[in-house]
Amino acid sequence: MDTRDAIRSAREKGMDLVEVAPNADPPVCKIIDYGKFQYLAKKKANEAKKKQVIITVKEVKFRPGTDEHDYSYRMKHARDWLTEGDKVKATIWFRGREMTHRELGSRILEKLEKDLADISEVEMRPRMEGNQMFTIFGPKKHKGAKAAVPGQSKGNAAKPAPAGPATPGSAPPAAPTAAAPPVAVTPAVPAGQAASETPVAPVGTDEKQTG
User: Fold this and answer.
1) 67 and 39 in one domain?
2) pTM of the model
3) Could you tell me which of 167, 110, 156 has the C-alpha nearest to residue 137?
4) 191 lies in some domain
5) Beta carbons within 8 Å of 20's beta carbon, 6+ residues apart
6) What domain range is 42 assigned to?
7) Are residues 73 and 128 in the same domain?
8) Residue 182 lies in a domain
């Protein structure tokens, strides 16, 4: 449609001709209410902003001669920031002759790494930049459960292997047999002896008969 005809059609409907895809070839326009179009675009941008996760990098500064009290104070701040989901940059500042004792700064950063090991992981190892040494800590990521060992499942440490298919020429597996119940045995009565005088032997014992 020609641009002039589209504008005329939009005016007749009391609406606006809005270009919604300027980068398309050719550009795409729609006859809509421009005020409603702006409202929906703003609403969509706000929803996307709510879902966006913003991570900031906060810094704690030390000196090679920082005492234990100041160290603990700054370390607690670093723990709070990491717990809130922010990253922490720990910096050691050197002045003058302190540059010849860089191992003092390395010890502080190593100690800080151990104190924060339960809630953080090192994203950048200690490095020098000018007259400062720094490292960056990030919140510890939750790792998934370990993969199960093949052939084993939880609660079933050992399971009998299923019987495989029978091979030609091989005998089928024998079926399990149930134990037979005990049977009472009554000895034979000799001729001329009354039935009442027949001795009864207990089950499971051998009896010797005299002639």
Assistant:
1) no
2) 0.44
3) 110
4) no
5) 28, 29, 30, 37
6) 3-49
7) yes
8) no
